[in-house]
Amino acid sequence: MSAAQVSVDRGRCIGAGMCALTAPEVFDQDEDDGRVLLLQTEPTAAHRAAARMAAGVCPSGAITLAEPESDGS
Amino acid sequence: MSESVHTVATLPTERQAGCPFDPPAELLDARRHGPISRCTHPGGKPGWLITGYDLVRSVLADPRFSSRKELMNVVDFELPPAPPGEFLLMDDPQHRRYRQPLAGKFTVRRMRLLTERIEQITADCLDAMEKTGPPTDLVTAFAKPIPTIVICELLGVPYEDRGSFQEQIDTFMGGATSDEELIAAYTATQEYLARLVAAKRANPTDDVLSELTDSDLTDEELKGISLILLAAGFDTTANMLSLGTFALLQNPGQLAALRADPAITDGAVEELLRYLSVAKTFMRTALEDVEVGGQTIEAGTTVVLSYNTANRDPERFADPHVLDLSRQDTGGHLAFSHGIHQCLGQQLARVEMRVAFRALLDRFPTLRLAVPAEEVGLRPETADIYGVKSLPVTWDREGA
Ligand code: SF4
Predict the structure, then answer these.
(1) What is this model's ipTM?
(2) SS3 breakdown of chain A: % helix, strand, coil, rounded to 5?
(3) Which of A9, A19, A25, A27 to mutate to test the pocket of ligand 1 (most atoms within 8 A of CB)?
């Protein structure tokens, strides 16, 4: 089974920190420019929901979550 | 069909009596008709009003809508472009040039590190309240000083300047009684900030402004940035603290729940942000013809985005007009906006509110209004930031 894959586009990120607030195990912010740092590219099951929420609330659309096909699972 | 579009003749200037926490009835009514309505801007120019959550969010994320001040097509004279540093009213790449170096100063982690200091500032305010009250005005004793001191420390305003500086910004952000007074206070604040920037460049101290002198930003730009930080960081938080306390006192069941369970504080702050949305409206101008919610917004037309109505959208929030501190669906509320301009200081505001509400309730278990709720003076709808003018509160002295 493949896990959910998170990717970030630092070019879009505005450093609002919603990701680090929502899913601190998955995202952090760069100390210099506040931009997102990815701590886990494949969040463990425990952090997947938070990562999904972070992708949803990110104001600049900088976070993408590729979920494995859920059909038949 | 364009004839069927709901129209709000002029944007409402008042809220309904007895409903100080709800958006004006005309706006809620507009939302009932649909997420987008026609409206007329104060200067007589035709525009659009967006009240639906999904549409507000999509416009905020759409680069075809501009924040540039000079493009705002609402009055019958031309607006000048935003002065250097005032990136709130700019588009990328100018906006990003200012925002990026600042973003690192306002990260979740850095703001959390400030928690202890904010607890101390709050405790000092509460001590002073205990000494001089009851009763007291919660606005002057609590809601204003906490964010003001915090922002003074971030900007590194020397201690001896704080008193006069606070008075100035207080006057130019809502406390002025005449235009002359307003302009004088605004000019004085500008001049003070220019001196402050020069002082920090000459003698950097341990604060955000000094750190920013170590970038390619000019003094003029740093002055503009300081003004934005001040304007955005002070009035908003102050009004959330005072109006939020008023809302809690008017919802005793919710207040009791919050008193009983500190663990719900973080969620309670998000719900108060959603429910009150003190930064009520922002504007964007279409750079090209854009279709929004089945309507064509013509290039050059300005849309008003009603954050407070969108945050009460029944299609997004269950029972939207109910203050429910344990609500689970506040994620994605628009109180701090959305898109590239989403509030830079939101993580600071969160820490301030979490600390201050908690400490206030813990310190005064019998806190209550000192006047009937109808007598609490509210800001007019024309003010940029909504809130109370003053909030007289009282409590039982311990052992009395
Ligand atoms: S929430 Fe989005 S914009 Fe904000 S820091 Fe994270 S990735 Fe960047």
Answers:
(1) 0.82
(2) 25, 20, 55
(3) A19
